[in-house]
Amino acid sequence: MLLKIEKRPEASQLMVYATPILALILTIITGTVLFQLLGVDPVEGLRNFFIKPIDNTYGATELFVKATPLILCAIGLSVGFRANVWNIGAEGQLTLGAIFGGGVFVYFHDVDSVFLLPLMVVMGAIGGALWAAIPAFLKTRFNANEILTSLMLVYVALLILSLLVHGSWRDPDGFNFPESRLFSESATMPILLEGTRLHFGTIIALFAVLGTWIMLSKTLIGFQIKVIGAAPKAGGYAGFSQKKIVWFSLLFGGAMAGIAGVSEVSGPVGQLLPSISPGYGFTAIIVAFLGRLHPVGIVFAGLLMALTYLGGETAQINLGLPVAVTGVFQGMILFFLLACDVLVNFRFRFTLFGKAAS
Amino acid sequence: MKLKHVVSLIGAAAVAGSMLLAGTASAEEKVGFVYVGPIGDHGWSYRHDVGRLAVEKEFGDKVKTTYVESVKEGPDSERVIRQLAADGHKIIFTTSFGFMNPTMKVAKQFPNVKFEHATGYKRSKNLSTYSSRFYEGRYVVGKIAGKMTKSNIIGYVGSFPIPEVVRGINAVALAARSVNPDVQIKVAWVNTWYDPGKEGDAAKALIDQGADIILQHTDSPAPLQVAEARGVWAVGQASDMTKFAPKAQLTAIIDDWDGYYVARVKAALDGSWKSSDIWGGFKSGMVKLAPYNAAMPADVVKLATETQAAIEDGSLKPFAGPFNKQDGTEAVAAGSELDDGVLLGMDWYVEGVAGKLPK
Amino acid sequence: MTGYEWIIPVVLTVITAATPLVFAGIGELVTEKSGVLNLGIEGMMLVGAVTAFVTATVTGNYFLAVIAAAASGAFMAFLFGILTLSLMANQVATGLALTLFGVGISALIGQDFVGEPVQAISKLNIAGLSDIPIIGQILFGQDPLVYLSFIMAIVVSWFLYKTKAGLILRAVGDSHDAAHSIGYSVIAIRYLAVMFGGAMSGIGGAYLSLAYTPMWAENMTAGRGWIALALIVFATWKPSLVVVGAYMFGGITILQLHAQAAGFDVPSQILSMLPYVATIVVLVIISKDESRIRKHAPACIGKIFHPAA
Predict the structure, then answer these.
(1) Looking at residues C23-35, what average pLDDT do you find?
(2) Closest Cβ–Cβ partner in C94, C102, C105 for A338
(3) pTM of the predicted model as reported, rounded to 2 decimal places
(4) Max intra-chain CA distance, chain B
(5) Contact between residue C275 and residue C249 where contact means Cβ atoms under 8 Å apart
């Protein structure tokens, strides 16, 4: 008997929704085996990973806090990925967003104004976009591959942040430790739910998702991005400028990552630190593809990814599992999700003795 | 399903539930630890985990310890600390400077939980700070290095130019120059706490620039391995790293949190815990030196032992004047010494350190 | 001192810094040439590093350790292949997931080996030759893996451009549909290329844990997999340029440390930026010739292949 994978005539709508459930079932089966091997009660293991982190209000809001920067970065990246622009430096653009946005506060820390926070967010978007403009310029002017330039600029961005917080942006009352002042009330994202850390950045992220959705489906530039992504030559014949698309998608992705950066420092972090992101810019690449580059998919993928991080923490706390185990488990969940995706566009056929069933 | 069955089911569920509740509220008290690195880093976080194990050993069934490793500074740490507090941990140790503000925030929300933050400066009624005067160990190491160097160049692999690290460099410079005024300290910053390859490369660069003793303020034993391979001296960091450099390691500055953690957990258990600011050194046992290398001449061993004893009994203060800043201006006059406040925020080099402090 | 002897230790340091990048870069280059983008280099290197370390510690046999590292890297790549080639999962996301998985599994395997040193892999000292002043040490006093890295670069270069199999591999990467219609098994060829890439990443990891810093520590690659990935782009998919790039990157990293130790009056963060900035600058200079990049870049990279018939 042979197993054959066949392309479906059109994507299966059923499978779009069924594959995540299939992935979940596979995860439960493998998780059971894994936990059994580690001497942990599988039911407890799975409960701690997927349910316990969000079975209370605070935990549920934390899911959104964690997912917000992931969704913002991923939504920006998805536009570029659709147009075959490989920006993998969202981490650096996020960092520059934090520097530009946080820098506003560092210089205007004694200003108490309702305009301070909006200015910070705008500057954050500008900072991220400027950092992404470097790969865009080098790509369009010198043909330099954006995979390399955007990635290398991540390291440069982190060192710039380090230079600033170890140097002139230090809190003058902070015993020369590498931290800025704590952001004041007017430089902090408003809290949406008293007693939690759910902040206005989440709303911004949801608007970004909505805006991107509309842009992709209703505007000319969105149409061009989709055409160029699907068939670069066709785009050329239709008179679309490849350069314009490169500029647009990098600036857009950079601005989104920049907003993610400023929403982190003026939200749950509350100051500038040498390390403000545990690799959100890189994780967002997974989120973008896990969400099938679709705005709504990205929201779910971002929440799911956030849940695996929260679950990893909870499993460490309650079950005493080392962080390595949570990494393995997280990797496996992603494998299943990605593998099951095949069913959307393909179907399995069992054929007897190599004879085609059709 | 009959009503009777439903009732009995609910009853069973209630019993099971109450049993569960009883299980969580047993006699054992929970103690939490938050680490910035993996416990497999063999450096900073590893030593804190050794302290956690000492707590387990001391109290046996009376406590249950929990740890969360590789917690990123920033928003993740606040969630982890809060979760530990909400889960009924009685006392929580947060072991990286970057956890300061998150610990402070959570401490405000959980006034009945006791918090201990390492290396910070913010305290409250239920938040203590603790740190170690590693510079005392480094001062002794400086004396040894000053005696042992032939090239008069001491290489120093630095992580980040924060006061803690600068303080260590200065302590070495002052001590080394007190026994050998020609000594120069050369520093290479790797801008990371942990990248074995890069730390080793920095050690190689320093040796190539003439250093014959390698000191480090990064986590991995890589610089020692380089020293061993190149035939120069080195000093271990955080743990006794003699396994990695049996010939090269002169000694190691050991972080020993065992005593402190046991004492604080004990205080939390018997109710005598009070918020405090502990900055312990040799005397309290927080800083220890690994056994000296057998190849060290007797007079150097004697000098080192005497220096340590003098620091312990208080007759020697590493940062007592007179000494100058790097540019030759007087930092501290004879007869006075730097107070802890200045030491805590030290961001300038003393005379004898080459290069400019990155700011 | 004759004045230029300082150069020997510097070059020796650069060689150790560059060698893991050469291995991982050459391997990933073959993977990419076949039209597959595997971003899991970091994860494969870590698994290779821990496998090599554990094997060397347990058996004491370094040859076996390197073979085991290559096998473990290839196995990781095989997992990647199942997902991306057989199940047609997205390559970018799967590669990143592979890194998450590799970081975790390597830490799990290695947890009992933390804090245990291992003897560094011994250097070949070719009698007589390694005593030649200056070049003797550099050319004839390295450990076997350094020579292997150069041999692999040459072999891969020869394979890709001088053999029929190499031509087929490149054809698969440039146009899988055409290669398929001629009758080549695109998927099988890609499996081999992906697993070769994994094996080389594994050896790159072995170099870290057996030669560069002979020990096992969690996450000890510290981002080198990403640098290797960038170097392939830098090299415009030419094996020889991967070696040049790795040595340039390693060289500038070492020189900036020397500049610091020599007391340069520049913040260390700025000096630390130099390798990254230099890589960008050089890429910009060599990218101007668009036709050359087109010639070497695999056209099908990252695209999913499914035989239409």
Answers:
(1) 96
(2) C94
(3) 0.92
(4) 94
(5) yes
Angle CA(A41)–CA(A45)–CA(A46) in degrees, nearest 5? Answer: 125
B 211-230 → A contacts, CB under 8 A: none
Residue C124 has which token pair?
A: 């070949």
Helices B298-312 and B134-148 cross at an angle (nearest 10°) of 160
Are the beta carbons of A245 and A85 closer than 8 angstroms?
yes
The label of the residue with tokens 């302290």 reads: B51
Question: Quick check: C284 and A145 in contact, CB under 8 A?
Answer: no
- Residue B12's pLDDT is 45
Residues of C in contact with B186 (CB under 8 A): 261-263
Q: Is the peptide bond before B38 cis (omega within 30 degrees of 0)?
A: no
Please count the residue pairs, one from chain B and one from chain C, whose beta carbons lie less than 8 angstroms apart.
122
Chain B from 32 to 61: CB within 8 A of any C CB:
38, 40-42, 46
- Report CB contact under 8 Å: C9, B221: no
| Alpha carbon separation from A122 to A127, A293, B276 (Å, rounded) | 9, 25, 43
Element (H, E) at B186: strand B184-189
Say yes or no: B159 contacts chain C, CB-CB below 8 A.
no
Say if the Cβ atoms of C213 and B356 lie within 8 Å: no
Residue C157, CA distances (Å) to B263, C22, C175 in order:
64, 13, 20
Cβ-defined contact of B80 to A323 (cutoff 8 Å): no
* Per-residue model confidence (pLDDT) at position B358: 66
Nearest one of B346, B356, B350 to B163, comparing CA atoms: B346
Q: Cα–Cα distance between B112 and B116 in angstroms, integer?
A: 13
User: pLDDT by residue (tens digit) across C204-243?
Assistant: 999 999 999 999 988 899 899 999 999 999 998 999 999 9
Is C98:C38 a contact under the CB 8 Å cutoff? yes
Give ipTM to 2 decimals: 0.92
Q: Tell me the C-alpha distance between A75 and A311, whole Å.
A: 24
Nearest CA among B283, B344, B297, B287 for reference residue B319: B344
Query: Does A57 lie at the interface with B, CB-CB under 8 angstroms?
Result: no
d(CA A6, CA C81): 18
Helix (H, G, I), strand (E, B) or coil at B155: strand
CA distance B262 to B281: 17
